[in-house]
């Protein structure tokens, strides 16, 4: 059944057409400006199969960008910031707080800009055959675009689908001309060639997958490698094939790569939700060693810059390992995990990240303490003996150390972690001594 068309309004008053399909965690598939028409796409069999396969496990959101498809066609502003507003309008209209983004080809810079500005919203980012700055080869289309619109669409269609797909490309070119008027198409395409988000790649905090078909042009494998190296911890998946259209060629390989990546994030989200609901969980506390002295030495403003680096590293690790941030105390965090294994993996990842920054002008040494139990959940906070003990354990650690209770050690038995027995330790507020274990996290350990 054809999806029902709905509308959202942007902050600058543009009506954006969209539809949703399926159930589950949401993934927003962005348009490839200016070639977008969410109703006509559904009538192309291969494209429809792609959408149906994506929605087998998830809720898919698809929208037309400004100036194209069923969205407002008469628009003056098609800048990068304006097209970010289109995505913002749709997710706000649907009330999405956390969602994955699938961004094909020309929409890559828009998705990157949005992810950098809204790190809390984008759970996973998939960039399909895309770039941060348009490859120089695309400039060759400029004169053809201005001189002969129909011939331009034919050339772009063949380049997109693959030159061997002659008849399919001819039909696709006709579809492209239905998506947008020649005047609007020229304006949107011209603007897209000028987008450049290379300076914000390092600000993307969402787990990111770069998918590139080896013989698809442009952007080509070298552009994909550069994009993957610019985004922190991004992954690169190189697939066989020549078409820039995911539904042409080996669609199943493309779906498998994307499905595996999105599935990891959904497992983490489910674990975090389970933790928030209560029951057995592992509590992790962090604390920056010498934060008061740091402030006295550097002053409030510079010390805050150092602590922001600490916050970024901690939050990246929590997101990557399924931790739920309960609260921050300025120079420390409290987090919870449904899995003791992931909690320890997260703690180790944090310490290794801080060790990697040891050459910084102001290196950070962090104490970490872990305990497991059944805390009381109330108003997005956790209370009780298990929480208090975790905080006291963190206070016993030195900078660069991870200390865990015996409960945590037993929960991860056989998982390959290395512990050093620190013996029984008196903890403030507890009558009986508690046996603590140091988690060995250094690579040589």
Task: Describe this entry's structure for a reader.
The chain has 445 residues and is of the alpha/beta class. The protein folds into two domains: 264 residues, Alpha/Beta hydrolase fold, catalytic domain (Rossmann fold, 3-Layer(aba) Sandwich), CATH 3.40.50; 163 residues, Nucleotide cyclase, GGDEF domain (Alpha-Beta Plaits, 2-Layer Sandwich). Helix content is 41%, strand content 21%. It contains 14 helices and 17 strands. Helix 2 packs across helix 3, helix 5 packs across helix 6 and helix 10 crosses helix 11. The N and C termini lie far apart (57 Å). The mean pLDDT is 91.
What secondary-structure arrangement, pairings included, does this model have?
Layout: E1 6-9, E2 15-21, E3 26-29, H1 45-54, E4 59-63, H2 80-94, E5 99-104, H3 108-117, E6 122-128, H4 141-147, H5 149-161, H6 166-179, H7 182-194, E7 208-213, H8 221-230, E8 235-239, H9 251-276, E9 281-288, H10 291-298, H11 300-321, E10 324-328, E11 333-337, H12 340-356, E12 366-373, E13 376-378, E14 381-383, H13 385-396, E15 402-405, H14 406-411, E16 419-425, E17 434-439
Parallel strand pairs: 3-4, 3-5, 5-6, 6-7, 7-8, 12-15
Antiparallel strand pairs: 1-2, 2-4, 9-11, 9-12, 10-11, 13-14, 15-17, 16-17
Task: Report a brief summary of the structure.
It contains 14 helices and 17 strands. With 445 residues, it is α/β, with parallel strands linked by helices. The strands form three sheets. An eight-stranded mixed sheet has the order 1-2-4-3-5-6-7-8, sandwiched between helices.
């Amino acid at each position: 059944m054809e999806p029902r068309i709905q509308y959202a309004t942007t902050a600058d008053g543009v009506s954006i057409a969209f539809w949703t399909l399926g159930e589950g965690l949401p993934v927003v598939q962005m348009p490839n400006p200016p070639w977008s028409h969410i109703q006509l796409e559904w009538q192309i069999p291969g494209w429809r199969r792609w959408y149906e396969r994506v929605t087998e496990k998830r809720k898919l959101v698809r929208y037309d960008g400004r100036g194209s498809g069923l969205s407002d066609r008469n628009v003056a502003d098609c800048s990068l910031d304006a097209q970010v507003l289109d995505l913002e309008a749709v997710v706000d209209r649907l009330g999405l707080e956390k969602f994955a983004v699938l961004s094909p080809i020309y929409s890559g810079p828009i998705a990157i800009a949005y992810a950098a500005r809204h790190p809390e919203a984008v759970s996973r980012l998939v960039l399909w055959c895309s770039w941060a700055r348009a490859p120089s080869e695309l400039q060759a289309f400029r004169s053809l675009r201005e001189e002969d619109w129909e011939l331009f669409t034919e050339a772009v269609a063949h380049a997109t689908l693959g030159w061997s797909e002659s008849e399919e490309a001819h039909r696709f070119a006709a579809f492209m001309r239905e998506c947008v008027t020649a005047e609007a198409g020229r304006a949107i395409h011209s603007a897209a060639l000028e987008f450049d988000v290379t300076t914000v790649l390092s600000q993307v905090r969402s787990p990111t997958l770069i998918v590139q078909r080896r013989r698809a042009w442009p952007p080509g494998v070298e552009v994909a490698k550069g994009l993957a190296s610019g985004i922190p911890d991004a992954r690169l998946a190189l697939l066989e094939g020549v078409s820039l259209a995911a539904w042409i060629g080996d669609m199943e390989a493309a779906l498998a790569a994307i499905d595996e990546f999105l599935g990891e994030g959904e497992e983490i989200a489910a674990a975090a939700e389970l933790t928030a609901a209560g029951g057995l969980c592992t509590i992790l506390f962090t604390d920056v060693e010498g934060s008061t002295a740091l402030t006295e030495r550097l002053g409030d403003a510079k010390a805050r810059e150092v602590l922001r680096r600490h916050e970024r590293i901690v939050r990246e690790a929590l997101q990557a390992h399924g931790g739920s941030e309960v609260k921050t105390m300025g120079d420390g965090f409290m987090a919870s995990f449904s899995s003791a294994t992931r909690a320890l993996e997260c703690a180790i990842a944090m310490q290794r990240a801080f060790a990697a920054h040891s050459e910084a002008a102001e290196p950070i040494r962090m104490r970490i303490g872990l305990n497991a139990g059944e805390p009381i959940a109330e108003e997005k906070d956790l209370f009780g003996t298990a929480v208090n003990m975790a905080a006291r354990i963190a206070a016993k650690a030195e900078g660069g150390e991870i200390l865990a209770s015996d409960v945590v050690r037993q929960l991860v038995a056989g998982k390959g972690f290395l512990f050093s027995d620190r013996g029984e330790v008196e903890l403030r507020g507890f009558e009986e001594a508690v046996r603590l274990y140091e988690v060995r996290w250094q690579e040589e350990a």
